[in-house]
Amino acid sequence: MATDRNALKDKLIENLVIIGAIYYFAVKPIFEKLGITKTPEDTTIDDVSNLTPQKNAWSGKAFIPKNVQVLLLTSSAKSSYAKTIYDALNGFFGDDENKVIAIIRSLKTQSQVADLAEYFRLTYKLDLLDTIRNGTEFAKTWRPLTAGLSNDQVSEIIRIINAKPKYNV
Asked: Is the entire prediction scored with pTM above 0.85?
């Protein structure tokens, strides 16, 4: 009788561990990707999305004040960075988050982020932050669950940008 009870108890624990693993490694990531559950990273991303354009480096030209000296990118740097980011997020087999993060780290100010975001919008007709989060149309079509960077990676990018000075080094 005690042996049957211990076997039943062991089987129950085993099943609970399996269910927990399935949830943690399969269901939870899908829910997060679909936006069904909110993570702390989602909150960080939402906070940026809720900023006024004048306070949001991702808003492009609206972030850059008139009559203030700001550090911007050269035309060739904007073109190169935008193409590299677009290509890194447009792959058939996956995104190259290291290239995207390396470019963001190389920018010196939030005004350079705004300058790049504006160039990206004009060139590709896409919002830079949205593209980093969700990938390109090609990636969304061929990799709907994996297009774009993870919320952890996007939050890291936002933290990197928020730590930069606004307009000048």
From this structure: no
